[in-house]
What does this fold into?
Amino acid sequence: MQITLQNFTKTFDDVTVIEDMNLTVKDGEMLALLGPSGCGKSTTLFAICGIHRVNGGKILFGDRDVSDLPSQKRNVGVVFQSYALYPHMNAYENIAFPLKVRKDKPADIKRQVHEIAKLTHIEELLERKPGQLSGGQQQRVALARALVRKPDILLLDEPLANLDAKLRLEMRAEIRRIQLETGITAILVTHDQVEAMSMCDRIALMHDGKIVQLDKPSEMYNNPANKFVADFLGNPPITFLDAKHQGDLLVLPNGHEIKNPKLAASIQSLQVGIRPECFGPQFGTGIKGVVKFIEKQGREELFDIELTDGSQLRSIQPSGADLSIGDDVDWGLSLDDLLLFDLQGERL
Amino acid sequence: MKNFNWLALGFLAPALIVITVFFLAPVILTGIFSFTSMSTSTGVTGGEYLLNQSGLRALADKGLNQVTLDQLNNAGYVVDEQGLAALAEKHGTATADEMRKLHDNGQFSARRDMERALKDLKANKIRSTKDRKAAAELFKHSLLNERFEAEANFRVALVEGDIPIEDHEIIVTQAYTGWVWTVDNVKLLFSLPSTLRYAGNTLIYVTLTLIFNIGFGLFLAITTFYLPAKSASTFRAIWFLPRILPPVMYVLLWKWLTWDTGFIATTLSWVGVAPKNWMLDTSTHAWVVVVLINGSFGASLGMILFSSAIKAIPSSILYSSEVDGANRWQQVRYIILPHLRWPILFVTSYQTLSLLTSFEHILLSTEGGPGRATEVWSLAAYHIALDNYGGNLQYGLGATFAVALVIIGIIASLFYLRFFNFNEMVAKPKIEG
It folds into this structure.
């Protein structure tokens, strides 16, 4: 079902957290609300499921305006960060709860719970209490409970934040599989760009209560709308250098010159964003510097290079570069992948 | 004792003294008193030897033979030298001599006859009735109503009265007015019909008050949880008032409400209901008032504990139940109440024990009435031992009632410990994240 936010505004007392936000989630799509903490992404999610009241604008499920409906009447499934399983009920009772309060027939409840348990691979765990389940298992139960009454939309609030690294990887794939199998419209709230990029069809990147870019993950990475997006996405993060535009030359602070930058003549000063994978020996030479720090990550190595003028660049290379701290390097840039921003941070 | 820590003992000493003086000593003394016959009439120190009519009846009940009983009872009046000497002292030797002449060694079983003998003196008539009565007493030769300071004196008197030696022991025991060691209190406790009544009253009192306490506490906690924070705390504060008020004042307010000239009676008289005492009119009235007084007082404890327990439920669980479609009622029933299981069990066991022993509100309001309709066990113990209408305060029997209550309390605690698995209850937090 298509979910639409129209001029959605949310305030807490005197503080306006979100103002005039517009967002459309397409039917069957999985969309990530991505952003640093405090950007309003969880607030948006709580408003969609009805826990928070809307202070302005509309929320539409399909054509139905649900803005003033309590959460009980919205038919949403929510997976909370803490899973919020009912500790006094076993897994079966937890999953059956939405059906029980809807007063479904016991036989129907049993059939539906077993169906959803099969989908989420927890058929053997139904007798256990939440306290007897591992984090990943609790996650599956929470997911089953959210899905069991076939909600119009599935809302996931930082669902992987409480899992260890390996489980996180596994559950990432699992949640996506289940979402695709059920074809449900889903919104994932996360501050983890990898989660958002790997699981979702589209990402809405939020900053200070506003959506700064709504795009496909690859598009958002390769083509960020502004400096904030470029900075937020990518791990290890991008580095920025101040540059001057002189004639048809782009001059980096260390004096390196790049020809023909295709910039309007009026622009004098700007910033160049250089991702770590766009700087290295495979791109020729011309940028001289000293290795200040090496972080070995197994398959790859991360270098912090201090340029002759004191500014820093980051580079990621396959392991085995045989360099140590203090060595001099002379590397090049992948000119096609440079990201240019004006001094206000907008993309040029 | 190498590691014995004198400093620790020093710090503990005040607490130990307080516990010993104010807790251990009363408990032990109560236990001891419960096996004595102490009362106002026996005193708490020693006693004397005194045989009276009720003592005689008791001896008859104990199977003392009739001959001995008659001997004790009818010893009557004997004109002997001892009496004559006393008479001479009071009314002159002439009177005594005439008396000796007429009635030497004469015996009279009734005082009337003795007085007539004195009246019939020719030369030295004793005219005043009052004087005659006093004079008659001088010849009295009976053990009845005569006080003996020491046991030996009493035994001598028995021998002098020709009481068969084999009956002495039982008579001496009966005549002793001081307290003695006895298990009669326990026997009495089990044989008195009123014991059953007190037990029944206590059961009604504890059960109804508990239900009111817990139910009302839960109601307040849950309703205030859904109220906006500010009005909720105002509301809670109002229900906390009974606990902060001095009990006397609190109960006085209830009396003012229920007296036959009180608020209820006055208000209802406007619509034609005859004024009556709404507290003591019938036993049902009394019970309703007693339960309301104690319940309103106790509900605040449950309310506070339940409120904080509800607040401790993670908000995500409550949100989750809402998005799962549960309405308020379903949320209370399926989510909040199961989370309150442990606080409810705790308040139940705690309140049971405190209700068993508390009687101050009943004492101040109905005082156990009307009749003994609301006389609960602890109040009965108080009445028997310390505030008896008849005036004979039976310390021993009262102590036995108190000890029985302690035993009931211990049994109830053990029951709660086992049944509710108290150890597990206090072992770890029951509200999980």
